[in-house]
């Protein structure tokens, strides 16, 4: 079985970063039939770690996010053209960022502008979503690669180059002839700390009661000023969550804390 780093896709990717163009790369990871549980996040993390190793970049937790706002903030603070770097924006669309139905939203415009300027920062952006049609059209147009995770067997993907046709500029994809599919490891089973960090973020988003990572990010910022809750307050929050129909937002308002704090306290009770 051909290793990912021995494929034409990998050589093209590295050449685009280290070759005469000295640019970044924009990679969209999706799946066959928009299937879940086929390893999209694992593939994104695996490739990010390989790229980081190839260019001597040390990934940080802030390079892994579900929030479009956090992605843009991290993009602004990444190294300049002298150091290739990597950012993962997981669950594009599903977590609130880059949705096709929000085509005119300011954040989508900002994301598109960031991708246009990618070369100046040499950032490799890797985003995941169930199907790439869910991404804003401008992001699809600017993507360099689409990595399509197979539903069966799990743990394989097919890489495609993304471009635009000559006359109308419509998005087109083209595959590679050297390999039919490429294998990638199960990072969940391998106890990858990077993968686990992203998984934890997704769990917090699911437990938050809303599906917008930017709002969760705002709550996390508010939580910095919450201080340490007393044990009695934690018990009151747990009791209120168990015995009443109050939402997390309502509980947060009662205790003057962020919604993510309510989620964390509730989860501790489970």
Task: Give an account of the 3D structure.
The chain has 270 residues and is an alpha/beta fold. It is 43% helix and 15% strand. Strands 1, 2, 3, 4, 5, 6, 7 and 8 form an eight-stranded mixed sheet that branches. 37% of the residues are buried. Mean pLDDT is 83; it is low at 100-104 and 221-226.
What sort of overall outline do the alpha carbons produce when their principal axes are compared? elongated
- Mean of pLDDT: 83
Structural class: alpha/beta
How many beta-strand elements?
Answer: 8
- Percent of residues in beta strands: 15-25%
Largest sheet: 8 strands, mixed
Order of helices and strands: HEHEHEHHEHEEEEHHHHH
Q: Count up the helices.
A: 11
Residue ranges: pLDDT <50 for 5 or more in a row? 100-104, 221-226
Task: Note the gap between the termini.
Answer: 43 Å
**What oligomeric state do these chains adopt?**
single chain
Radius of gyration: 20 Å
Kindly state the percentage of residues in helix. Answer: 40-55%
């Amino acid at each position: 079985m051909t290793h990912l780093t021995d494929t034409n896709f990998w050589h093209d990717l590295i050449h685009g970063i280290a070759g005469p163009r000295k640019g970044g790369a924009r990679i969209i990871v999706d799946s066959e039939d928009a299937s879940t549980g086929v390893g999209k996040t694992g593939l994104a993390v695996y490739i990010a770690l390989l790229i980081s190793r190839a260019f001597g970049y040390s990934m940080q937790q802030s390079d892994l996010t579900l929030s479009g706002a956090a992605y843009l903030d991290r993009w602004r603070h990444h190294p300049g053209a002298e150091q290739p770097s990597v950012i993962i924006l997981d669950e594009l669309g599903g977590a609130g960022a880059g949705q096709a139905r929000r085509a005119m939203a300011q954040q989508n415009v900002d994301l598109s502008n960031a991708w246009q300027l990618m070369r100046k920062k040499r950032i490799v952006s890797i985003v995941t979503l169930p199907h790439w049609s869910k991404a804003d059209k401008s992001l699809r147009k600017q993507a360099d690669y689409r990595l399509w995770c197979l539903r069966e067997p799990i743990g394989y993907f097919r890489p495609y180059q993304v471009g635009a046709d000559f006359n109308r500029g419509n998005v087109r994809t083209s595959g590679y002839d050297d390999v039919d599919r490429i294998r990638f490891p199960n990072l969940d089973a391998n106890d990858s700390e990077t993968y686990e960090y992203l998984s934890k973020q997704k769990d917090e988003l699911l437990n938050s009661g809303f599906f917008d990572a930017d709002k969760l990010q705002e709550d996390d910022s508010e939580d910095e000023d919450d201080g340490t809750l007393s044990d009695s307050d934690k018990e009151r929050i747990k009791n209120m969550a168990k015995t009443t129909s109050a939402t997390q937002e309502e509980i947060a308002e009662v205790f003057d804390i962020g919604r993510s704090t309510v989620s964390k306290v509730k989860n501790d009770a489970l």
